[in-house]
Amino acid sequence: MRAQFVLSEIGVGLRRNLTMTFAVVVSVALSLALFGGSLLMSDQVNTMKGYWYDKVNVSIFLCNKSDAENDPNCAKGAVTEDQKKVILADLKKMEVVDRVTHESQDDAYKHYKEQFGDSPLASSLTPDQMQESYRIKLKKPEQYQVIASAFNGRDGVQSVQDQKGILDNLFGLLNGMNWAARAIMALMLVVALMLIVNTVRVSAFSRRRETGIMRLVGASGFYIQAPFIMEAAVAGLIGGTVACGFLVIARYFIIDHGLALSQKLNLINFIGWDAVLTKLPLILATSLLMPALAAFFALRKYLKV
Quick check: 47 and 269 in contact, CB under 8 A? Predict the structure, then answer.
């Protein structure tokens, strides 16, 4: 096959159906940008899970005098020194526990003032109104129920709270947004495939005279189909390149510069450039193969030889 002939046919086809070619490029770019974005979103959620689940604590809040008057869980009165010693000893015996930290009422008051010092409520609180607690670092965060079942309802224990539950709600929301992006991506991919098929059909119909002559002179099916397949592949590759540009620009301006979320949200461990760069070859390969395969199957009906 002469490469010059194929390349010239590709150029003719792309120029002849310029509007539809542009639509293919845009739809492929948007769908693959969403595809890459959803992959990066999954990486970001997994990175955040690994970072935050390693830091979450289970907190055992102990009854104080105020709880003894108002909370049914503390009906037997404020926690005693003996009860605290028993709770601490039982915690240290449990295999699921990695580390136990005690927070006194003074410590709790100090931390509250640091975080909510500007709140009107802060000025009316006193240290004796704060709750003592044990902060437990688990070897595996999902083993929270072991602590909850062992200490909920004990004398001197007001409640057992798991920070992982708050994070689960956050990650559930992020995963929901990710699946929504994937659904939109799938819809855009269907639109892109339909545009590719229609573009190839229009191109094949407009050049039916040339392809008919090529069939008469004995040209092979692949020789006839190759320009059309490559037209679709080139348009898709352009769209894939644009999608890669979108992802790189988004990472640069949203996380590093512009919005600079990496500087404003220090508590979030953002994915690095390596995660972005590893997705680009996959996007380019998809942008090349997807249109080529769509064109190949579309041409089987219209260019039988």
Answer: yes
